[in-house]
Amino acid sequence: MLRSLLSERDRVHAAFMKRPSVERDTRELYDSSPMGRMSNRERIARAAEEARLAAEEKAAKAGEKAAKKVSGTGARRSKDVRMKVIWEVCDGTGKVIKSFPYPQKEQAEEEAQARSRSSGRTHILRPTKVPMGDAE
Q1: What value, to the nearest 5°, has the Cα angle with vertex 64 and ends 62 and 69?
Q2: Contact, 130 vs 86, CB < 8 A?
Q3: Which of 6, 82, 86, 109 is most buried (most C-beta within 10 Å)?
Q4: 130 and 84 in contact (C-beta within 8 Å)?
Q5: Cα dihedral sign, 33-35-36-41
Q6: What is the sign of the dihedral through the CA atoms of 52, 58, 63 and 64?
Q7: Alpha-carbon torsion 24, 25, 26, 27, what sign?
Q8: Cα(67)–Cα(61) distance, rounded to whole angstroms?
Q9: What whole-number distance in Å separates Cα of residue 24 and Cα of residue 15?
Q10: Per-domain residue ranges for the chain?
């Protein structure tokens, strides 16, 4: 009877080994001991080692990407430009007719109304951001 059990075990083992190699690799990865079982301590140690290797690979890839970016681009970051708001009187198509500094909103509104009355076409007032160094 012992002989028949051993032969049955060998037959099951042979059938298992005929499975695709991916499953065998997975089994070999986690069942490294001769008995086919890993202790929790071994499993935790193996998982920690795999995580360390994965982190090293990720860091190496990130270093390669950073090196490619630095060598590939010669452009420098432009200095932040301070902006100011001005009022622009525009015709119906959006063409700028006249501009006013931000504190002179009332005068800009009067200009837009006066142009609308005189020409019969709509003129609008819109705020626009421009760099600080530019004159109106």
Answers
A1: 95
A2: yes
A3: 86
A4: yes
A5: negative
A6: positive
A7: positive
A8: 10
A9: 12
A10: 2-69, 83-131
